[in-house]
């Protein structure tokens, strides 16, 4: 929902035409997209086209666009490197990625750089228009919010009562402590805690936020700690409190937190820092460091500094999870055992104090490998799931998600009742899997003697995917079985045996697109 800003802000925002740069190393695609999209319809104008990433970056430096639509795989400087290079100096640019390769790693890398739109070639006008429409809407909301913030900043300048809160907010919003922010923090300390240490208290609020309720919480904190020189500010779903440090403060804060949570409808976890002096401003933890402390702790905890995790930022080679074990449990319809196995893995991560961002990486890898067993799920579903997992702030979010995933996987293992004609089609696919001529039309003409269009619609309705996609998935899964059984098999032999004729290169491309690695890589790993 778009936030309702005061009318004095809305009047200041005029209709803008957002500048778009189009990047693709294929001239036909470049010219095609530039022509088929009605740019004016979405308050946009195409201001430039580039044939590669280097050319695009030069254009961005000379004439920064608002939106860049770019191919991922390009010579010289690919799409990932282009956004990585450009985002430092031009963070406001919005990106739409195009790719002819259905590879989840690309999407995952793109999302790490803030890219939310990832379209597979060939994409039509509707695909691009939908992405453009979303981005323009997002740009307008950001501009309205920016105008609102500017208006509020003007009000703060007029009313210095809130000056300390604003300084505290800016201090924690930016990851790097600048000389300017340190100087302002020094002024606060000189004003409020000239000869005493101070601490920071973060209340992390989960779920949908009722801002009036949060404002009420902030007011309650201010009133409850009047004698402690309290400064409070709100950053998204986090209330940051700065106050005087004393021996009894920790107990007082804990009592307040427990009492407030008993009466509150907010789901909140509390994180308390140690005491700092003016000379230790550089050692104050960042907002992200405080948020990370929530990750492994039980929800609604009161986390003191003595219980903070000292996170390890490296992957642990001795922490492994056996996916075959999970798959075995799921095939046996033993969900509780699968979840228990996952919980044992999580306990190892917690004991080793593995950093949350590394843990997210572990779970995304586990997810992608498990999903390779569920061919019916679309790429878009996976990309959205990865995006959600990148944002998870608590380990229990992963547990909940994987419990649901296990349930869905077990349902996939449960035999379904298909119509007679679909059962015949599945049997024919299994029997003719090595036949290079196997297609819907061939099956209709040589096996079932029925209308191909009818067969295709019936198959899609009951199976959930197109006949050709199902056949390709079946062949690639069969290839994995053959590699495991015949470890000295050659790639060209696999291609011939699975209906790809004398085109092993195409077979390898399809294999990698689905499994994330080539058949040669699996064969070599088996040899090792």
Automatic annotation (TrEMBL):
Biological processes annotated in GO: phosphorelay signal transduction system
Protein's cellular compartments: Cytoplasm
Signal peptide boundaries: none
Example GO molecular function: DNA-binding transcription factor activity
Domain (HTH araC/xylS-type) ranges: 423-525
Residues carrying 4-aspartylphosphate: 71
Residues covered by the Response regulatory domain: 19-136
Protein name: Response regulator
Sorted UniProt keywords: Cytoplasm, DNA-binding, Phosphoprotein, Transcription, Transcription regulation, Two-component regulatory system
First-listed, main subcellular location of the protein, grouped into a coarse class: cytoplasm
GO cellular component, one term: cytoplasm
InterPro entries found in the cross-reference section: CheY-like_superfamily, Homeodomain-like_sf, HptR, HTH_AraC, Sig_transdc_resp-reg_receiver
Superkingdom, taxonomy of origin: Bacteria
């Amino acid at each position: 929902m778009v936030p309702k800003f005061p009318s004095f802000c809305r009047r200041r925002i005029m209709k803008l035409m957002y500048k778009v740069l189009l990047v693709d190393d294929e001239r036909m695609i470049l010219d095609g997209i530039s022509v088929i999209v009605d740019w004016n319809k979405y308050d946009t104008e195409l201001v430039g086209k580039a044939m590669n990433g280097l050319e695009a970056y030069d254009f961005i430096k000379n004439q920064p666009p608002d939106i860049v639509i770019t191919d991922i795989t390009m010579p010289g400087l690919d799409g990932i490197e282009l956004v990585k290079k450009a985002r430092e100096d031009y963070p406001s640019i919005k990106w739409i990625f195009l790719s002819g390769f259905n590879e989840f790693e690309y999407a995952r890398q793109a999302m790490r750089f803030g890219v939310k739109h990832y379209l597979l070639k060939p994409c039509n006008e509707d695909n691009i228009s939908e992405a453009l429409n979303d981005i323009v809407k997002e740009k307008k909301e950001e501009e309205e919010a920016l105008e609102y913030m500017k208006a509020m900043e003007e009000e703060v300048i007029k009313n210095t009562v809130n000056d300390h809160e604003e300084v505290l907010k800016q201090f924690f919003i930016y990851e790097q402590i600048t000389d300017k922010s340190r100087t302002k923090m020094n002024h606060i300390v000189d004003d409020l805690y000239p000869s005493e240490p101070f601490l920071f208290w973060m209340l992390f609020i989960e779920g949908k936020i009722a801002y009036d309720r949060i404002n009420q919480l902030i007011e309650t904190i201010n009133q409850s700690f009047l004698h402690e020189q309290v400064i409070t500010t709100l950053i998204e779903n986090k209330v940051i409190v700065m106050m005087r440090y004393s021996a009894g403060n920790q107990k007082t804060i804990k009592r307040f937190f427990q009492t407030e949570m008993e009466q509150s409808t907010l789901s909140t976890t509390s994180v308390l820092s140690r005491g700092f002096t003016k000379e230790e401003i550089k050692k104050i933890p960042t907002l992200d460091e405080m948020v990370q402390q929530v990750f492994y702790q039980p929800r609604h905890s009161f986390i003191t500094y003595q219980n903070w995790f000292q996170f390890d930022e490296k992957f642990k080679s001795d922490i492994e999870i056996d996916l075959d074990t999970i798959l075995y449990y799921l095939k046996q319809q033993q969900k509780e055992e699968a979840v228990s196995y996952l919980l044992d893995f999580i306990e190892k991560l917690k004991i080793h104090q593995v950093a949350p961002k590394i843990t997210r990486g572990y779970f995304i890898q586990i997810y992608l490998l498990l999903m390779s067993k569920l061919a019916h799920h679309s790429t878009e579903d996976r990309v959205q799931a990865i995006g959600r997992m990148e944002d998870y702030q608590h380990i229990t979010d992963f547990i909940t998600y994987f419990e649901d995933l296990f349930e869905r996987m077990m349902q996939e293992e449960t035999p379904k009742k298909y119509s007679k004609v679909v059962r015949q089609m599945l049997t024919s696919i299994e029997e003719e899997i090595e036949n290079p001529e196997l297609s819907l039309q061939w099956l209709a003409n040589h096996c079932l003697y029925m209308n191909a269009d009818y067969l295709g619609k019936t198959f899609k309705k009951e199976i959930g995917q197109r006949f050709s996609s199902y056949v390709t998935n079946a062949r690639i899964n069969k290839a994995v079985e053959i590699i495991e059984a015949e470890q000295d098999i050659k790639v060209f032999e696999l291609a011939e045996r699975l209906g790809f004729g004398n085109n092993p290169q195409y077979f390898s491309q399809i294999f990698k697109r689905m499994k994330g690695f080539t058949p040669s890589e699996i064969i070599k790993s088996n040899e090792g």
